[in-house]
Amino acid sequence: DGGITQSPKYLFRKEGQNVTLSCEQNLNHDAMYWYRQDPGQGLRLIYYSQIVNDFQKGDIAEGYSVSREKKESFPLTVTSAQKNPTAFYLCASSIWDSNQPQHFGDGTRLSIL
Amino acid sequence: RKEVEQDPGPFNVPEGATVAFNCTYSNSASQSFFWYRQDCRKEPKLLMSVYSSGNEDGRFTAQLNRASQYISLLIRDSKLSDSATYLCVVNGAGSYQLTFGKGTKLSVIP
């Protein structure tokens, strides 16, 4: 089945700890994205990547880092500098075309211990 | 003005009712428009793209009014399974970035 796989589904972070969220897609999409969703809020863009080895900051990149070493993979690291990391994190991918929709993985819920 | 604005609801409607949602957007240069649905604690899923001429998919009809910068979604013959939050999505200031509205919550009641 083609799709986007995020793992883990639930993640707990201790104070001062970095954690990495995995996102893998087998849709052969060039573009990948990371969003954060807080309760009752819209999705906010953290980072996006158009091609391998290239990525751009979104609206709320502070405290996060990404890499794009393979077309299929776009992991997100939530660093200790992100002081309010509790949220629902969604990874998406799309054809790099402004008329194309994005398709989402089923998300990772991150909480503070 | 917010980039993408939706009435948060909730809209509580009986089964079989027709319900309409509107969404306004601020960037007149926007070219792509979509409706997504999001179930509680799940990921957003594409419901339909919105084309200039309007488009229909079964019980769902989407319309675009560029002059007034709004998009609408009409759901006919509502089912219990239509209960979800509906997200209006527009490509934003950077044309490859999508801007999501906060969503309109629909509850279809038996």
What does this structure look like?
- The complex is a heterodimer of chains A (113) and B (110).
- Chain A is mostly beta strands and 113 residues long.
- Chain A has strands spanning 4-7, 10-13, 19-25, 31-37, 43-49, 56-57, 64-66, 76-78, 87-94, 103-104, 108-112.
- Chain A contains no helices and 11 strands.
- In chain A, the strands form 2 sheets. In chain A, strands 2, 4, 5, 6, 9, 10 and 11 form a 7-stranded mixed beta sheet that branches. A 4-stranded antiparallel beta sheet of chain A has the order 1-3-8-7, with no helix packed on it.
- Chain B has 110 residues and is mainly β.
- In chain B, strands 2, 4, 5, 9, 10 and 11 form a 6-stranded mixed beta sheet that branches.
- In chain B, 35% of the residues are buried.
- Classes of the chains: A mainly beta (113), B mainly beta (110).
- Chain A binds chain B through residues 31, 35, 40-43, 45, 48, 50, 58, 88, 90, 96, 98-107, and chain B through 4, 8, 31-32, 34, 41-46, 49, 87, 89, 91, 95-98, 100-103.
List the helices and strands and how they pair.
The complex is a heterodimer of chains A (113) and B (110).
Chain A: E1 4-7, E2 10-13, E3 19-25, E4 31-37, E5 43-49, E6 56-57, E7 64-66, E8 76-78, E9 87-94, E10 103-104, E11 108-112
Parallel strand pairs in A: 2-11
Antiparallel strand pairs in A: 1-3, 3-8, 4-5, 4-9, 5-6, 7-8, 9-10, 9-11
Chain B: E1 4-6, E2 11-14, E3 19-25, E4 33-38, E5 44-49, E6 55-57, E7 60-65, E8 70-75, E9 84-91, E10 98-100, E11 104-109
Parallel strand pairs in B: 2-11
Antiparallel strand pairs in B: 1-3, 3-8, 4-5, 4-9, 6-7, 7-8, 9-10, 9-11
